[in-house]
Amino acid sequence: MSKENSNKVIHVKNVDVFYGNNHAIKDVTMDIEEKSVTAFIGPSGCGKSTLLRCLNRMNDEIVGCKTNGTIIWRDIDILSEEVDPVPLRRKAGMVFQKPNPFPKSIYDNIAYGSRIHGIRDKDKLDKIVEKSLMDAALFGEVGDRLEASAMSLSGGQQQRLCIARTLAIKPEIILMDEPCSALDPIATAKIEDLINTLKKKYTVVIVTHNMQQAARISDYTGFFYLGELIEFGKTKQIFENPKEELTENYMTGRFG
Amino acid sequence: MIKLWSSKSVQKENDENPFKIKFNLKENLILAFLIGSASVAILVSIAIIFTLAEGSISFFTDPLVDILEFFTGARWVPSGNNPSFGMLPLVSGTLLIAGGALLIGAPLGLAAALFLSEFASDRLRSIVKPIIEVLAGIPSIVYGFFALLIISPILRDTFEASYFNAASAIIVIAIMLLPIVISISDDAMKAVPHHLRESSLALGATKWETSTKVVMPAASSGIIASILLGLSRAIGETMVVLLAAGSIANLTLNPFDETMTMSAYIAKVATGDIPPGVAVSAGFTVGLVLFIITYIINMIAARVVIRIKTGSTVKKGKKVRFHNILNNFGSIILIFIKINSKIKNIKKYLRKSHPLTLERRYLKQKIGVNIIGGSIIITAVFLVFLLLNIISQGASGLSATFLTSFPSRFPSKAGILPVIIGSVYLMLLTLFFAAPLGVGAAIYLNEFAKDTRYTRFIRQIIQNLSGVPSIVFGLVGLTIFVRLFNFGPSLLSGSLTLTIMVLPIIIVATEEALKSVPDSFREAARGVGSTKWQTVHHHVLPNATPGILTGIILSLSRAIGETAPILFIAAVFAKTVPTSIFNGFLALPMQIFHWTTMPQEEFHILAASTIIVLLLILFSMNTIAIIIRHRAQVRRDW
Questions:
Q1: Is the pLDDT confidence value at B419 over 80?
Q2: Which of A103, A107, B58, B234 has a C-alpha 20 to 30 A away from that of B596?
Q3: Which residue in A has a C-alpha nearest to residue B449's C-alpha?
Q4: Closest in A88, A116, A151 to B530, CB measured
């Protein structure tokens, strides 16, 4: 970790998060690699989702949540009070645990982000929608019924639609909060394939409950326990040769 | 390394930080409007307090008035050579009528709620619920007409009651309380978790035992709240007592005597039966007392709910005396519950001598279910009786002349064209004022407000406003809009008065609709970089619109049927239709009131015909609301 690498893009430094009196994240410091998949693992309530939600300031939406520390991205401390989370979220898109499409058509779901950021040209929007659906590996399944309601899609399709919706606003970072926990194994496999493709262009940070999933798709893994980052390193090393006893115990199923 | 980053970031922030917060004029203007709408509730409260305090001060400083006599005197004679202002007769009249109504209405309503929640099939529920909604939707002036012209004659014939009597008001107000008691208790019992019922049934309890010994105690907070809210409604009810109970302040508890309540006296100020001067400011003082009483009851209701929910005493630390008093009231009620359960234990002990057999338990269940089922039948029969009576009386008066003529001193020539027009104008203006303010306040509270002291304060105030008796709003309208703003007895004053009355209803209904929109929509929108207002505007409001519209329509139908708030403002006679918002106006409930108080029977028929017109308007508004709700439910795919 200490070895400075040129393509570490997100620098999390001494971040603490409090929900009221609950100290949810304790002094976490980590650097996240560009164009790779970083997985956060750990038992429920260990703070991994909380840290993920710091990266696009979604925690701002939670009443009573307080964040200290700095997260430097593109030379800017995104936790600073001077940073408006609205444009930030355009650059750090988020995919949620449960697929949450808007109750609108497939087309409108994807075009929404671009529309609120000022794109009105129909041809441009058509292109964005098509490209995003392609990139989210969904175009083949829904390309002929873009005006259908997003609610008519299956759970797995809805989740890929949410990914497409995120891609449409051209983010640089994609944050995924247990994106497969509500999906069946086949849909999960499709999303995992998709993540593998996405990392060529995007920096992906994913929270997962499923250790096999972390092992399959991630390049780096951080293990969290009770709000602390216990261990962080290359996925291969974390899984095969963990340095901390806690990590090893968790990996081998002795708790959690 | 660290220094390098921070120095860089400082430099960047100064010139090319793409995320730097920029001032967004549109968002800020919208937010200002929303906060302003929410703050209107504070202005309304100030207006109420100002109105009541101003009147009371001029009352107490009058040489004819003795403060001690006011609170302890037993003679209330506001006019004549020797006026006397001892309010005990008004208090006893209020207690007699509200207490009597509660004594009938609370058991009946509780029984009906228990039956609906625990024993009725879904089909039966779907029949009974609309009956209760219809009862709730009938304006109080209609109940007043019914009490004076239908119930009262029956009581006169059978019990030799006086022409005006408390009993007719008691019976009718008891029925008016049913919707409040039933709907809140039913909600409370429905909210009892299913596993509690299952665990009781699994121990071999009958359904009756489960519902009376497990469900009802678990729902006790809601049940008590429903009864308290019913009580405060009964105390504030004006039109029924004004019409049916009479205008002599008797210190009596005989229900067949003539009595006057506090609310009725205030209304007398409006109807011009009281000489100007100190007798009028006495009305404001009585209004203040009425306001304080209903306020305290509503606060206790809220406290009881909180106390039983948290299961223990309210947090110590902030020792405000007033709060302690309220807590003590709550304790007294809890003690009553405990005593009740002690009595039950003693009964149980006595019963040990002859144990409960299975047959006896089933017999108990059978009797119990029949009794509580009977309460529903009583309610339904009453509703049918009321509607049939009014239709049979009023149908003959409905004619083309009636609908197209002006009111007249000659019953055969009288019509209600300007009255309908006045009510429609009144409703449209109220819509114009109340809808943006109410929806704006609800959006602010539900979508923007953080849990600060200020927003909690506003919420508290809105809750309190919804419990203020409507006649008090009448006083406020008179003082603030008619006199202080100098709008006179005009459409503008009337609609503003109705606006402040329905505002809490619209706010609550809108918040409800906003809350039904899943948070995942908000998260998704925020996640792709929508601003707060964009999120609300694009995702929350479109999905909440049917619910909001339904709430607005229902609160307007409440406004158009209300008499007490516009009693001071609306006219009873006009030769022209209003052409400006500063003109006077006629309104349907006011016209019904006027014709009901006329001695000739022909006018009573006109009143009944007007009631039919009013009910038809209300009925069609409710139908529209139901259609909107239903279509939204069918279309909704989330």
A1: yes
A2: B234
A3: A63
A4: A116
